[in-house]
């Protein structure tokens, strides 16, 4: 359901950039060209993704009462992902990377994820589930970056990497909007929060297992 795939890799070697087909799209390249005619920096685009996530989180919290806000959440998630795509393109393809770009590449993503997933938990009536899902999502990034710190190529595999989480939330917004006209329960949101938690933990396991496999392969005589 995600219209714009994510790109949480604004800077760094090509091996550490998530492969995103949208980078080669005419839309993305034209928009990047427009941004390069301005003074906007990749770091500012990364911060904008947090602002969109915050707006989406607020809308999601209140969407339980006013279901039309699910459409606002959907738009906010897609704009967040668009920022994630463009910050990397402006930084790498546009040559505007900065010495602190790696920090702006990672930290805003963790904040944006937390805002949206925690809001999902509260909207589903289970705040603890949102916090647990946000922690598990952050751990997926930790495992990825830890693998990179060992000299390995960063592993962006799923089944619940960032683009998968945001695609699932986008789909949940559409389904929750329909659910709101049929019942007062929030089964869609509750199920989505559980899938994000379980899928993120499985992603941590898969990435960790891959790191261990590479280490063992490197140490074989």
From TrEMBL:
Lineage of the species this protein comes from: Bacteria, Pseudomonadati, Pseudomonadota, Alphaproteobacteria, Hyphomicrobiales
Transmembrane portions of the chain: 45-64, 115-143, 164-181, 187-206
Keywords: Membrane, Transferase, Transmembrane, Transmembrane helix
Coiled-coil ranges from the UniProt annotation: none
Gene3D superfamilies on file: 1.20.120.1760
InterPro entries the UniProt entry points to: CDP-OH_PTrfase_TM_dom
The protein, known as: CDP-alcohol phosphatidyltransferase
Protein's organism: Sinorhizobium medicae
GO molecular function: transferase activity
The keyword Isomerase is assigned to this record: no
Superkingdom of this protein's organism: Bacteria
């Amino acid at each position: 359901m995600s219209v714009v795939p994510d790109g949480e890799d604004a800077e760094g070697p090509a091996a550490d950039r998530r492969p995103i087909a949208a980078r080669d799209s005419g839309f993305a390249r034209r928009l990047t060209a427009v941004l390069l005619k301005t003074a906007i920096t990749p770091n500012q685009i990364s911060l904008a993704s947090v602002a969109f996530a915050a707006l989406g989180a607020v809308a999601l919290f209140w969407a339980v009462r006013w279901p039309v806000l699910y459409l606002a959440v959907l738009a906010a998630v897609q704009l967040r992902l668009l920022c994630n795509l463009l910050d990397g393109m402006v930084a790498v393809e546009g040559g505007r990377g900065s010495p602190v770009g790696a920090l702006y590449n990672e930290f805003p993503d963790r904040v944006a994820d937390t805002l949206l997933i925690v809001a999902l938990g509260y909207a589903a009536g289970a705040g603890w589930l949102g916090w647990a899902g946000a922690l598990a999502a952050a751990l997926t990034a930790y495992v990825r970056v830890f693998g990179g710190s060992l000299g390995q190529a960063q592993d962006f595999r799923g089944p619940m990497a960032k683009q998968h989480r945001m695609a699932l939330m986008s789909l949940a917004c559409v389904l929750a909007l329909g659910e709101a006209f049929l019942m007062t329960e929030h089964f869609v949101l509750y199920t989505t929060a559980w899938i994000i938690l379980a899928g993120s933990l499985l992603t941590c396991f898969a990435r960790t297992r891959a790191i261990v496999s590479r280490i063992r392969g490197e140490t074989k005589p």
